[in-house]
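This entry is set out below.
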Amino acid sequence: MNTADLAQYIDHTLLKPEATAADVEALITEAAELGTFSVCVSPNMLPVTVPAGSGLAVAAVCGFPSGKHESRIKAAEAAAAVEAGADEIDMVIDIAFALHHDKASLEKDIRAVREAAPAPTVLKVIIESAALDDDAIVVACQAAMSAGADFVKTSTGFHPAGGASVEAVRLMSETVGGKLGVKASGGVRTREDAEAMIAAGATRLGVSGSRQVLSGGAASGGGY
């Protein structure tokens, strides 16, 4: 895969709590230079301006990073982000629902955000795959499909259980069967990581150290 094609898989991401408006501006400038698909930022960083002609999409997170928010709060946060210019929403599920295979509650949570941010807004559902066993991953992916999401996503990058794994991406891809996209995020720090995730079925990547990944180096650890 050439570098330009790989860049188009990447949501260039800055979700550190200490991020400033200047940091986000730098992120956007770098994303445009690298040719990534989008930038992904915290919702209070919106609105942002992307360079004309860059084609950059803007994503914002919702219910981040714990997912332990009432569904109506997640829905309101998503709607506000869309109003402020977000093209895509990356929401965090209540992981306990997945752990207990409570598909009905998962669907209700996801559907609330889907209704607040309808198409053409892209909805990605973060399932925190490293904290789940295989059966729970399948249940979470099935709920995302039933509730009308566009993507399932591995991780926030902030959970102590870890981030994306090739095995989780493969299982998620097999479960959604091409009906949804699969985003690998959390710990994608080298080009080899990125290409392995894509080979396993990832159709989008969440990366903070995109320059290092695209250049074949290793991005620094920590966070997303």
About this structure: The mean pLDDT is 96. The CA atoms of residues 153 and 183 lie 4 Å apart.
